[in-house]
Amino acid sequence: MAVEPTRWYFSLRSPYSWLAYRELTENAPDVAERIEWRPYWEPGAASARLLAGTDIRLPYVPMSKEKHLYILQDVKRLAAERGLAVAWPVDTEPDWDVSHLGYLVAEDAGLGREFIGLAYRARFERGLDLSERAVVAAIGTELGLDPDTLGNAADDPAVLARGVEALRTIGRDGVFGVPFFVHGPDRYWGSDRLNGFLAGVRAAA
């Protein structure tokens, strides 16, 4: 019998993923250590060109101004409840390939989760633009990895191909937003559903 998957999908773009990441790693490390971590992102120019020739269809919907303003207010409120301050980045033309493909390189080196932590800190606590290759390269330096390889991961055809395959799993799992948690047949969407996911995983264990 096939083992049912237990994983979560995160995005370095999403402040709700940032909050879920902190909750997982700080308050539920037992679960964080035994589940799969999968990236979810809006394809940048390089990934989009490769996806154009496939049957992969991603459920992205442009965000309205009203929703954007609500998220700014909501995340500020949720962060304050956790004793956190948000430093919102200014990224008018983001390319999410840069950071998420950089994550794949760090993951190959066994430092994927450390990369995520530093990327979230850069974006939501320091207000840096993760589309800037220099920002991702600096994370590589901090991790002791080659900064050029990390910062320019989007130029590597092999990493790009892996990124496309990672995006393919989004459709297979029915993911339509982040954070998104999968435990067997059960799906949980949003940081406010994290406790339900944790309870399910712990009960099964």
Describe this structure in words.
This protein is of the alpha+beta class. The protein has one domain (6-204): 3-Layer(aba) Sandwich (Glutaredoxin), CATH 3.40.30. It is 54% helix and 8% strand. The protein is built from ten helices and four strands. Belongs to the GST superfamily. NadH family. Residues 9-197 form the DSBA-like thioredoxin domain. InterPro entries: DSBA-like_thioredoxin_dom, GST_Kappa/NadH, HCCAis_GSTk, Thioredoxin-like_sf. Its EC number is 5.99.1.4. This is 2-hydroxychromene-2-carboxylate isomerase.
Gross morphology is globular
What does the radius of gyration come to?
A: 16 Å
Main sheet strand line-up? 2-1-3-4
Number of helices: 10
Which CATH class applies here? Alpha Beta
CATH architecture: 3-Layer(aba) Sandwich
Kindly report the name of the CATH homologous superfamily: Glutaredoxin
Topology order in helix (H) and strand (E) letters:
EHHEHHHHHHHEEH
Strand content: 5-15%
Helix vs. strand class: alpha+beta
Low-confidence stretches: none
Number of strands: 4
Major beta sheet, specifics? 4 strands, mixed
CATH fold type: Glutaredoxin
Into which percent range does the helicity of residues fall?
Answer: 40-55%
The residue-averaged pLDDT reads: 92
Roughly how many Å apart are the termini? 17 Å
